[in-house]
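Appendix C reproduces, verbatim, an entry submitted by the partner laboratory led by Prof. M.T., so that reviewers can inspect both the input and the predicted structure.
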Amino acid sequence: MVELEKLEFWRDPVSRSGPENMAVDSWLLEQERPVLRAYCWEGSWGSLGYFGEFEEAQAVLPGVSLVRRATGGGLVDHRNDLTYTLAIPRSHGLARAKGSESYRLIHSALADSLRTGGHEVELVRQDHEVDSSSCFEKPVEWDLIDRCGNKIAGAGQRRTRKGLLHQGSVLLGEPADDAAILLRLASELALSVEMLEMNPSGEGFTALVSQFSDASWLNRR
């Protein structure tokens, strides 16, 4: 299952707003180093995919603040989930793999991580025929489901000239050690895992926060 020689693990200690969390993820990809970031949200937030419909998202999550991701995928309620991001430079094979294959590889590693922690999960082999904009109501190929068929893990991806951005969400429905799950994920993906501390800053980061905060970005579709 190992895909990387080394992966840096950053448990971001700062609870951030939706726009700032999205800006941090995009900023990470610009650093061109393999990083797995675990993070949390300041307040009640949901995120919609790059192609999502804002008005529909508002109807599904009334009263919840919304931010648009740069990645694809459906609408995600972040009030009770475990949220993580993988930023993988293009120089690595995982970033060059086709979308379905990189999704499968990452979620296979996540499944192993969850099973080690005692969770019964399996990979979805084909899209479920469910008409919903909500990510966790519509399992698609290589998502994770529990023994009752409920979706517990999904993600959105984006590829740029810098590499692969994979934004994932896990919803276990029970108390869990988020850091332990994601640290095991890092170990499944890489031969060597190093702990990391980062402080996103600079004009580029400030510009990204402004981009994800802008109403024209949120309402773009």
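The CA atoms of residues 4 and 92 lie 7 Å apart. Additional entries are available on request from the coordinating office.
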